[in-house]
Amino acid sequence: MYFYEAMFYDCFTKNHYKMPTYSISVLKHQQRADEKYPVSIRVTHDRKSSYLKTDYYVVTQQLNKNFEVKDKVLLKLLLEKIEDYEDIVVKGLGNDVVNYSAKDIVEFIKKKQKEVSCIDFISFARKHVDKLFREGRDKRAKHIQTTINALVDFSGVELNIAKVTSNFLKRFEEFLRSERTIVRVNQFGRNVTTKRKPLTDTGVHDYMADIRAVFNESIDFYNDDELGDPVIKHYPFRKFEMVKPNPPKKRNIYLENIRKIMNLENGLKRHDLARDVFMLSFFLVGINTVDMFKVPYSSRKKGRIIYQRSKTKDRREDNAEISIKIEPEVERLMKKYVDPDKVRLFSFYKLYSDSSAFNNAVNKGFKRVLQEVNENMEIPM
Question: What distances in angstroms separate CA 195 from CA 31, 180, 351, one per listed residue?
Fold first, then answer.
């Protein structure tokens, strides 16, 4: 069992005061439907205990036979969290801790954590990204994750939210518009150094929109409009003027070029994949690569494909349900990429690890296709 116990020494009375103890707690009866267990920090004082919930969950493989966390990475994070709690209590209560119960101490820690001086914007952003992944909004999560990585490059791994001011945002924009050297860890755990080109107005706008979205989320989380006296009192985007994105390129395509693409025969696997995906998207009224990758086999019903569009299903009352008639022209392509296991409508998920990898492969192949028909357009995302 991992626990912390401390003594507080009062130099005036020469007395020792026993501080609360902290331990990592995982309880068997709290197992959820997905077979995960929530991890809490148990605070014990005067032989009574109270619990602080954490954002972490574990599966059986991360626990030893005594139901203690054995995952070294998670254990390190939890012990750091305990140190933070201990620091809050020692600095905030001192020898007055003798007048507090375990439950009072837990409430004191919660209150202090909500003070603006304790809010780490980077940490909050990463938790928001994790939440988006859990909700299945992978594309949005990855976009914000990229933005936060750039913010860490600029400000470091910790950033007090009080420092996110309009002037800070201006300096961050200047950073984004400069050539930058970044270090990232690759799939083999090695540091890889690369150079990034300055962002365009569109890129800067997208990054700043992500920062604004996370800042708004933090206000919703920490501020209680009904009680008043907000924790986060400033809003940097009132003074900071976001650059307007560049107008999108025209994406019209002439009928003769559609015919050229449909009849292209190259023999290269990625080239043919891109051509086929484009034609599938064309025949299926603009279905994007994410939905093409994920749409279930059961979506095909009575000569139609009925599915929920990933990009907007959480923003519409009808869950963005799309119903498309399957025309004879598309049947050949649908048979070519049919999933033999009947899990999804297309077999692309068997070829690529996720929708992003699939989309990247299609876009790379489509560049070759466009060169051959001399057309400037993109596969719909």
Answer: 46, 6, 30
